[in-house]
Amino acid sequence: MRFPATKICLLVLILLANYASATAQSRRSQTGMLDSDGTILSVAAVRSDKAGEPIKLEDLFLYENGVEQKIKNFSFDPSPAKILIMVDNSSTIRADVEVLKKATMEFAYEIFDGDQIFVVGYDAKPEIIQEWTDDAKKIETSINTFRKKGDSFLFDSLGAAVEEILLPLMPGTRKTAIVLITDGLDRGSKNAFDKTLSELQNQNITVYALQIPDRTGGAFRRNSPKAGDVINQLAEGTGGKVFQIEEAQNAAKFVCDELKKNRYLLNYLPTNSSSYESRRVFLIGSEGITLRTKNAQPPNVK
What we know:
Blueprint lengths: L4 H26 L8 E9 L12 E5 L2 E3 L1 E6 L5 E7 L8 H14 L5 E7 L3 E8 L2 H7 L11 H13 L9 E7 L10 H10 L3 E6 L15 H12 L3 E3 L3 H14 L1 E6 L10 E7 L3 E4 L3 E2 L5
Parallel strand pairs: 5-6, 5-8, 8-9, 9-10
Antiparallel strand pairs: 1-11, 1-13, 2-3, 2-12, 4-11, 6-7, 12-14
């Protein structure tokens, strides 16, 4: 059977559109969206009692939008970590360049075999300082380019870093973290705070922070939370943790140890599988078990 040329062209366009749609859906399912295999959460879990005894499914209780969920699997994640360090290089940040360099280097000293670090400095735009490496000497040399200049566009820089640096690793790499060295101030980003946080949650990226003293003195922001609240909400919303810049050495050890020794993958099939809004997540454990994970899932209906 022969088709007119116009019909053949139309058929090709339809096939291409269907392929693109299927590819997009597949990618969403691999980065936290609902699929036939369920939804994945990255979890930091520590047992303070019964040392050495594994954490079992019956020790965990997961709720989504207040509805208890059935956990399908909970397993230790032995994979190496990819740690993206983002350092505020704006002109008015209340930390000397040497302090910023020292805080960054603490992570280079603490990573485990197989872990890698990527360093970005940002002001009005992000700048690659050092690509993926586990070589402390390379990092030490590269961070000599840190400087203080311009305004802080935190949200835009985070969005660009996720898109260009972390997303290309996925879905093969699940253990990804961002370490922010900043006071949380954003001055003029096009990306809104809520969108930035939602994207991080969508990709299961954990945010840790070394918090620098707030240069605004706690001033209210028109279109985003106060600087200090930005730091807290990014960390709490993604299952991370906040440290003060003076605690850099202890923070680096904590973060690298947690990623290596206390990271798990939790798999569940949401009961309320149709949602046009973010799904609030609440995970608790039996007595003696401490858990942290992100506090919301993205909508699974677009």
